[in-house]
Amino acid sequence: MTRPMEYAYQFIKDRILDGTYRPSQKLNESDLSKLIGVSRNTVKKALLKLERENLVEIEENKGATVKSHTLDEILNYLEIREVLEGLLARRAAASITDGQLRELQEVYLQMEDHLKNNRLDEYSNLNRKFHQIIYDASENRQAVEMVNVIKTQLLRYHLRTVLVPGRNQESLEEHRQILEALQARDPALAEERIRRHVGNIRQTIQTHHQILV
Amino acid sequence: MTRPMEYAYQFIKDRILDGTYRPSQKLNESDLSKLIGVSRNTVKKALLKLERENLVEIEENKGATVKSHTLDEILNYLEIREVLEGLLARRAAASITDGQLRELQEVYLQMEDHLKNNRLDEYSNLNRKFHQIIYDASENRQAVEMVNVIKTQLLRYHLRTVLVPGRNQESLEEHRQILEALQARDPALAEERIRRHVGNIRQTIQTHHQILV
DNA sequence: TAAACAATTTTGTTTAACAATAATATAAAA
DNA sequence: TTTTATATTATTGTTAAACAAAATTGTTTA
Q: Cβ distance B175 to B105 under 8 Å?
């Protein structure tokens, strides 16, 4: 076994993210302790670490519950993502290497291809890769970390805009425009376009949340 | 005594923020346990909570140290503040009440007054109040929390741009422009102006860090 | 001086315990 | 029966002592 605390942390985190432990569910320390096979003290530390990532909520004398978010909170987080990703794209436009630009274009072309063949899972994966390249080029590790914390939090809500009719083609076009702005190494344009992109994701979820959440 | 863990947490946090515990300093669990009068387990939990706020760093088998930041990291955080405060001002412009606008104007006039009389401490306090009113009006609690975490982290570096010659008058003028944009309830303008304001703070620190840090 | 080894310190974790609080079940009163 | 009060149980917050594993320090030797 890895370090007990790390193991317990990952054990609980996995089950929150895959939906085994649902929002608002109580997380009993003794039960987890027996189930995972580490002491209650260690479970408690793992829970504290999860609280840090906003995946659980700890109330005085009441213990931990899986954190649940209202639609408004989810939209707030997407608004934050909008400006943070804008910042990252702006920085990336100024410092992206030729190699990274080639990689980005390659990913984009694959996205085009997969979408044409309606392979949505792979499209989503490439989407993630596309944005990751921008993060890597951005040189603001602190902002990247914040974006990742937000993305992790929202993971279990399955905000799959890819399932909304017509959204895919729009999304692809937005990526093309982002790619162009980065190729032009135009910081203001890159920021504007990625903000519009994330803004559209937000609006799609605002409109279709009944299907998605 | 309040709850031991809360007490230990605040005890250590205070000393990090006031500079008693300096960046990179080792935080020994047994020593803290004896000093604060709580068990080592409780110290450990307090340290985990502080890690969450980026005030301490915990390394496997090496324990906790007071987190230290490079100038680049500080500038990264200010860049994040720039876009987050921009977001908050944009939202505030759309939802600020008449009462809050009056309060904001009142604070601005006092700032003018204190600056004229060179009362810099009070100017700083009002500055904080000015921005707090915008946060309150913004209706994005998640973003406000992030800004506050960043501000707390940077507190102990004493980024007092107020000490840079000529910066004060500039700062006052920027606040006037922000106030105007909010009075006009113009989201895009409010965002642009507060971004310029925080951007100027960042540039001032980039230029004068040798005096300030 | 550097390398090798031993001694010491510190951390990560466990176990068992107990008080304080919260949740639940039970009994008494309206 | 419903509500209210009381007792019971479960759960959390915390402590203390213990020990292995890892890191640090100190000492000796080449």
A: no
Edge-first strand order for the sheet with B56-59 is: B26-27, B63-66, B56-59
Q: Which of B57, B60, B80 should be substituted to probe chain A, the one whose Cβ sees the most A Cβ atoms within 10 Å?
A: B80
Helices (H), chain A: 4-17, 29-36, 40-52, 71-95, 98-116, 120-138, 141-155, 167-183, 187-212
Q: How far apart are CA B181 and CA B113, in angstroms?
A: 21
Burial class (CB within 10 angstroms; exposed 0-12, middle 13-18, buried 19+) of B168 = middle
Say which DSSP state A166 is in. Answer: T
- Only one residue has tokens 């004060």, namely B168
Spell out the residues 6+ positions from residue B75 whose beta carbon is closer than 8 angstroms to its own.
Answer: B202, B205, B206
Burial class of residue A126, CB neighbours in 10 A (0-12, 13-18, 19+): buried
CA angle B56, B26, B156 (to 5 degrees): 50
Place of tokens 């340290």: B47
Residue B192 to residues B85, B89, B166, B174, Cα–Cα distance (Å):
10, 9, 22, 11
CA of residue B37 to C1' of nucleotide C11, angstroms: 19
Both tokens assigned to A205 = 């979820």
Percent with pLDDT over 90 in chain A: 87
Whether B207 contacts B161, CB under 8 Å: no
Q: Which residue from B minimizes the CA distance to A43? A: B45
Q: Which residues does chain B have with pLDDT short of 50?
A: 1
- What's the pLDDT score for residue A115? 94
Question: Best mutation site among A55, A60, A83 for testing chain B: the one with the most B CBs within 10 Å?
Answer: A83
Distance between the alpha carbon (CA) of A77 and the C1' atom of C14, Å: 39
Please report, rounded to a whole number, the percentage of residues in chain B having pLDDT higher than 70: 98
Q: Which of A118, A69, A80, A94 is nearest to A189 (CA)?
A: A94
Q: Mean pLDDT over all residues of chain A?
A: 94
Of A48, A77, A87, the CB nearest to B83: A87
Q: What is the largest CA-CA distance in chain B?
A: 57
B23 touches strand D (CB under 7 A): no
